[in-house]
Design a protein that fits this description.
The strands form seven sheets. A seven-stranded mixed β-sheet has the order 15-18-19-14-13-21-22, sandwiched between helices. The chain has a six-stranded mixed β-sheet with strand order 10-9-8-11-12-24, sandwiched between helices. The chain starts with a strand and ends with a strand. The chain has 481 residues and is of the alpha/beta class. The chain is globular, with a radius of gyration of 23 Å. Helix content is 39%, strand content 23%. The protein is built from 14 helices and 25 strands. It has two domains: 271 residues, Aldehyde Dehydrogenase, Chain A, domain 1, CATH 3.40.605.10; 193 residues, Aldehyde Dehydrogenase, Chain A, domain 2 (3-Layer(aba) Sandwich). α5 links the parallel β8 and β9. The structure holds NADP nicotinamide-adenine-dinucleotide phosphate. NADP nicotinamide-adenine-dinucleotide phosphate binds next to α7 and α8.
């Protein structure tokens, strides 16, 4: 049984209390490692380490910070296969997905922000009366980053990379459900010689160590990605302390398919948006709205395509759908399918737990599920499921499609499939979401603002937005007479 360790002050350390939490492999349901159950004393040690790390790192020239971050990216690339296998085992996702998405993106995050560190700039404002203002952009100090289990190393690095690029010291708290790749990354930091205390990784329960991190008086800012309910708790603690706060929360994203879309592209795009990573991506399109004139044709093609998705052992190269992250999450998803039935929905495909034969027989798998017959205002169409469950709904007019698309409390992402460019622009402007894709889904340019509106969050990540979040602007005004 492997024991994961915290990474504090440049060293791998057991939790001060000696207490650990169990860590399971979702594909088999078996216990395979233990994760530190850190408490306030571990956090105190991390804050002390980060304090000295910050003194050195914030004075380190941007080019040197960039060089160190590039060696972290190289460290990931050198151990890419080990990391992909670990991510798949810890999370349940197909190893093929971890190889092509999670791990390459983790190193890309570090490379991108290593470059950005040397490109960041600040503004100056000339006044006609003979004065000039310039803005200093200084690191905020010790920042706390809290990341979820769905894209573990991908989202962990998406937060720490801009924080480090801007000259901050970081205390990172990965999800207790998927701690392994953050731990392996700690060993990369140690091997690469990241200066002690610049990054500290403290594992444990969100409600304990996550909460303590948010409320610690020496932590200046919090970058959080996770569920809306947790985000609200984080805001409740951090806001009265006037901390800088970035919240990337849940979604209930619409996919809009118009009759003039390239049909095969729309079917394929909607399948990918619905079921990538078992539907456990905040950007997944879980409400598919289809123009009535092609509704039946689209539904039949979509259901046929979904029924070919291979659910099974994440290690098999043919597997397209792996396990969901935990038994509790599987039961939540199955409960949502039950609710959809109670609300009057018809399950067209899926709708149950899958038990792949062999080593994964007791794993936590859910069949990709498609439901029809529900209106936009029912709970199934308003609440985030975060699993392989989608609904199909017809619409008659563009206005109806827009109303249905906006009929949730979330506002993260949307994809529109149509060849009418004017309509696409109109809808893009009218949709209440932070991201709009037209004739594509999850095509990401790391320079662009990433985040949601309404209950999907506050603030944006990505590019210079992230560097602005992780710096404090200070205006300096000089009168030269
Ligand atoms: P979660 O339960 O909210 O947990 C997110 C992180 O917060 C985990 O590290 C968790 O630790 C920690 N945490 C839990 N309670 C906390 C507290 N009281 N104070 C501080 N930290 C606390 O979310 P999840 O289930 O891991 O992730 C799924 C959710 O994330 C979905 O809603 C999804 O839409 C959202 N998400 C959003 C984005 C985006 O960019 N908008 C991206 C990915 C995911 P433990 O796991 O140890 O409890």
């Amino acid at each position: 049984m492997m024991d994961i360790q915290n990474y504090i002050g440049g060293e791998l350390r057991p939790p001060a209390s000696g207490r650990y939490l169990d860590n399971f492999e979702p594909a088999t349901g078996e216990l395979y490692s233990r994760v530190p159950s850190s408490d306030a004393s571990d956090l105190e040690a991390a804050v002390d380490a980060a304090q000295s790390g910050f003194l050195a790192w914030s004075q380190t020239p941007a080019e040197e910070r960039s060089r160190v971050m590039l060696s972290l990216a190289e460290g990931i690339e050198a151990r890419a296969e080990e990391l992909a296998l670990a991510e798949s085992k810890d999370n349940g996702k197909p190893v093929s997905l971890a190889r092509t998405l999670d791990i390459p993106r983790a190193s890309a995050n570090l490379r991108f922000f290593a470059a950005a560190a040397t490109q960041f700039f600040s503004e100056s404002h000339q006044m006609e009366m003979g004065a000039i203002n310039y803005t200093l952009r200084q690191p905020t100090g010790i920042v706390g980053t809290i990341s979820p289990w769905n894209l573990p190393l991908y989202l962990f690095t998406w937060k720490i990379a801009p924080a480090l690029a801007a000259g901050n010291a970081v205390i990172a708290k990965p999800s207790e459900l998927t701690p392994m790749t953050a731990y392996l990354f700690s060993t990369i930091c140690r091997d690469v010689g990241l200066p002690a205390g610049v990054l500290n990784v403290v594992h444990g329960e969100g409600a304990v160590i996550g909460q303590r991190l948010v409320e610690h008086e020496r932590v200046s800012s919090i970058s959080f990605t996770g569920g809306t309910v947790t985000g609200r708790a984080v805001a409740r603690t951090a806001a009265p302390m006037f901390k800088k706060l970035s919240l990337e929360l849940g979604g209930k994203n619409p996919t809009l398919v118009f009759a003039d879309a390239v049909f095969e592209d729309a079917v394929e795009g909607a399948v990918r948006a619905a079921f990538s990573n078992q539907g456990e991506i905040c950007l997944c399109g879980s409400r598919i709205l289809v123009e009535s004139s092609i509704y039946e044709r689209f539904r039949d093609a979509f259901v046929e395509r979904v029924s070919t998705l291979l659910v099974g052992d994440p290690n098999a190269s043919s597997t397209q759908q792996g396990a969901v992250v935990s038994e509790a999450h599987m039961n939540k998803i199955l409960g949502c399918i039950e609710l959809a039935r109670e609300e009057g929905g018809t399950v067209l495909v899926g709708g149950e737990r899958v038990r792949p034969p062999g080593r994964c027989e007791n794993g936590w798998f859910v069949a990709p599920t498609v439901v029809e017959g529900l209106g936009p205002s029912c709970r199934t169409n308003r609440e985030e499921i975060f699993g392989p469950v989608v609904t199909l709904m017809p619409f008659d007019t563009e206005a109806q499609a827009l109303d249905a698309a906006n009929a949730t409390d979330y506002g993260l992402a949307c994809s529109i499939w149509s060849q009418d460019i004017s309509r696409c622009h109109r809808l893009a402007a009218g949709i209440h979401s932070g991201l709009v894709w037209i004739n594509t889904w999850m095509l990401r340019d790391l320079r662009t603002p990433m985040g949601g509106m309404k209950q999907s969050g506050v603030g944006r990540e990505g590019g210079f937005e992230a560097l602005r979040f992780f710096t404090e602007p200070k205006n300096v005004c000089i009168k030269y007479g």
